[in-house]
Amino acid sequence: MRYAYLSQKGYYPDDPHKPNQDAYSVTDRFGTRESNDGFFAVYDGHGRDGDLCSQFARDEMPKYLAKHINKMKAKESNAMKDKLETYRTSDPLSHIELSKEQMHKASLRAHVECNLAMHQDPHVDDSLSGTTAISAYVHGRRNRLTISNVGDSRAVLGKATQPNGYGQRQALKAFPLSRDQTPYRKDERIRIRKTGARILSLDQLEGLQPINDNADDDENNDEGDIELGEELDEGGDPPRVWSANGDYPGTAFTRSLGDAMAEELGVYAEPEMLTREIKPEDRVIVIASDGVFEFLTNQSVIDICAKFTDPLEACRAVVAESYELWLQYELRTDDITIIFV
């Protein structure tokens, strides 16, 4: 397994001193001294203190996840002490294998506790600021991968779909490992509206477009759903989450870490998780903030990466292409962060 990472500060001509609100973390030998596991994560901050929120998650999330994974392993260790005696190792927890359900429980608890700790940190004002969190945990000995996602950053797998001829560079097909949690998703819209929140675009909020709050009442109605990653959002005015009684918080996502004022509207920190076995045809994983995917589909990103054998060169190419496309279509760019495994 080889990897590289790259983060490019956004270009904001109206706010040239705005900090890079993206952050990332890469941890080898994750959890225990003898572990072969790896943890890769990208955090995309937003709001006035978005950089502090993403940096807090970067520093604390790996600790919370390691804590809960090791707690689960310690329970297993106590349940099979006799077997562990045969390992004669200084780090017996490294031999404990967690089930999918145990991994998901550990990840859920880590995200919820990290979110609560952010609320309580006196140095971070997360009332109207927060961060996404997308992570890939590679279980080295079991050859498994667990993705945990909060928000609209993204993980994508590049998979070989045909045998590789000797000396030939292989085309890869993109498979999403996460789904963006935004009001474009009908299930998320329904969940958010149950709190009493409104879901409106800015044009709808300002009365420039009609509002149809009953669009989701029909279970067979898929109007307005977009599978982001396969399609690009070309409208430029996404649906957002608003309080029933005020023009806040206006989040274009339905889950996040932080965003304390939005939590009562259902914008919470519980991740969606996926665990799968890593197979021989699985060649690359891309974990990136939404700055990468604003003008590139999942397949476009994987196509760029497939041209390179050096992970860092792949990162540079994706960031350069994303940055150039931003400047073609906008007067600014977002922060752009990618990890390529």
From TrEMBL:
GO terms for molecular function: metal ion binding; protein serine/threonine phosphatase activity. It is found in: Membrane. GO terms for cellular component: membrane. It holds the Pfam family PP2C. SUPFAM superfamilies: PP2C-like. Its main location: membrane. It is a peripheral membrane protein. The keyword Nucleotide-binding does not apply. Gene3D superfamilies: PPM-type phosphatase domain (3.60.40.10). CDD domains: PP2Cc. Residues 214-236 have a biased composition (Acidic residues). Keywords: Hydrolase, Metal-binding, Protein phosphatase. Residues 2-341 form the PPM-type phosphatase domain. Residues 208-241 are annotated as: Disordered. Belongs to the PP2C family. PANTHER family: PROTEIN PHOSPHATASE (PTHR47992). This is Protein serine/threonine phosphatase 2C. It comes from Fragilariopsis cylindrus CCMP1102.
